[in-house]
């Protein structure tokens, strides 16, 4: 397979770019040097490209034959993590680290651009490559969409390396693969006073605690057990001193689910429980809901094509099924517009020390998989355009 042969040819290039990105991480929406570097690399090969949404890059490769347009997406931002890998290519920026593999996504996408540029005569249509900023703050995809990158796009595919999946294995299941991720804040207002005279007060700590407990049955008693969901209160802030009854309490949390319907109902459920509980204790509660990302749902046809493509690269026996994740991905903003598929590329290898969880200070990837990811990006695009003339 030509794409596989070319990916092998560019193996060292992709590895070196991955390490360069790893050593020079930039935070979400501040990937200025990274995007400049990507643009410079694309321009070396004469690939049409531009910086969009401040720190994103879009490259466009026009095939020799007319046809549809498919997009390939790789994110490029880093995390506020102090690296502890001890590798020679460890982060040079204290407090910032590519602890989720986005350095590899950007590098593999650059490799795929080289492969596809060499194969323009075999492309039936157009390939767009999105080097996306700000995934970790779930704003980058929306910014790129607002900049118009999805105009004319018919389908999209993304790859995420996964330390949970053994090296050499790939997952591209259809349906819900990653959960929605939204945030809520509940502000409780009571009446403060002396800790020795509770009858004069309305204790916001007690009210807030009751709300936390009353929120839990929303999952078990309002939604179907066949629609998995999570409601977590991760933060409670209240009080100033041990013997002072707090007049206010602020609760912050997150909701996760795979069902758009459940996601839509969460706000009403949380608001009803918070307000009614507060009223029962003579207090008041105000609820704010902040939309994060929707569930990432892989299109059936795109997922089938991704599995077929993966099987041609690693063998059918290494295309596996993995359970959905409750993590969120702003790839969902793209795949809500057109059919899409998010593929998991296994990079977990205990012997190489690449099985640490994502966002861990010792996270690393099995770099032997960069070649596979490069070929997967390129061949998926070729297959999609060949099948959808």
TrEMBL record:
Protein's name according to its UniProt entry: Amidohydrolase
Cofactor(s), names only, from the UniProt record: Mn(2+)
Biological source species: Fusobacterium ulcerans 12-1B
Pfam families: M20_dimer, Peptidase_M20
The keyword Cell membrane appears for this protein: no
Details of cofactor binding: The Mn(2+) ion enhances activity.
The entry's keywords: Hydrolase, Manganese, Metal-binding
Annotated positions binding Mn(2+): 100, 102, 136, 160, 359
Record has Cytoplasm as a keyword: no
Cross-referenced Gene3D superfamilies: 3.30.70.360, Zn peptidases (3.40.630.10)
GO molecular function: hydrolase activity; metal ion binding
Protein family per UniProt: Belongs to the peptidase M20 family.
Domain Peptidase M20 dimerisation: 184-281
């Amino acid at each position: 397979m030509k794409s596989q042969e070319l990916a092998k040819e560019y193996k060292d290039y992709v590895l070196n770019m991955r390490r360069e990105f790893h050593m020079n991480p930039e935070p979400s929406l501040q990937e200025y040097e990274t995007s400049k570097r990507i643009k410079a690399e694309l321009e070396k090969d004469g690939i049409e490209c531009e910086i969009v949404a401040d720190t994103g890059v879009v490259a466009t490769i026009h095939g020799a034959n007319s046809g549809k347009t498919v997009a390939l997406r790789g994110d490029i931002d880093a995390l506020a993590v102090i690296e502890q890998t001890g590798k020679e290519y460890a982060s040079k920026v204290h407090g910032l680290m590519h602890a989720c593999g986005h350095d590899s996504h950007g590098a593999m996408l650059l490799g795929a651009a080289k492969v596809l540029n060499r194969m323009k005569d075999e492309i039936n249509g157009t390939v767009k490559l999105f080097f996306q900023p700000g995934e970790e703050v779930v704003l980058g995809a929306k910014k790129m969409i607002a900049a118009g990158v999805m105009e004319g796009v018919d389908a999209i595919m993304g790859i995420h390396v996964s330390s949970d999946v053994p090296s050499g294995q790939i997952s591209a299941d259809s349906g819900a693969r990653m959960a929605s991720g939204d945030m809520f804040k509940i502000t409780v207002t009571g009446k403060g006073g002396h800790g020795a005279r509770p009858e004069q007060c309305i204790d916001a700590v007690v009210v807030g605690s009751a709300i936390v407990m009353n929120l839990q049955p929303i999952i078990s008693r309002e939604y179907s057990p066949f629609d998995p969901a999570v409601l977590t209160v991760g933060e409670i802030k209240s009080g100033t001193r041990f013997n002072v009854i707090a007049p206010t309490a602020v609760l912050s949390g997150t909701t996760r689910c795979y069902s758009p319907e459940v996601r839509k109902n969460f706000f009403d459920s949380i608001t009803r429980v918070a307000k009614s509980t507060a009223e029962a204790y003579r207090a008041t509660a105000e609820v704010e809901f902040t939309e994060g990302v929707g569930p990432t749902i892989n299109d059936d046809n795109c997922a089938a094509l991704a599995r077929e493509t993966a099987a041609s690269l690693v063998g059918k026996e290494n295309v596996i099924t993995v359970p959905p994740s409750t993590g969120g991905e702003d790839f969902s903003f793209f795949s809500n517009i057109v059919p899409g598929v998010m593929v998991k590329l296994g990079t977990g290898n205990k012997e190489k020390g690449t099985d640490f969880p994502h966002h861990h200070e010792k996270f690393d990837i099995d770099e032997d998989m960069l070649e596979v990811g490069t070929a997967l990006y390129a061949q998926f695009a070729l297959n999609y355009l060949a099948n959808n003339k």
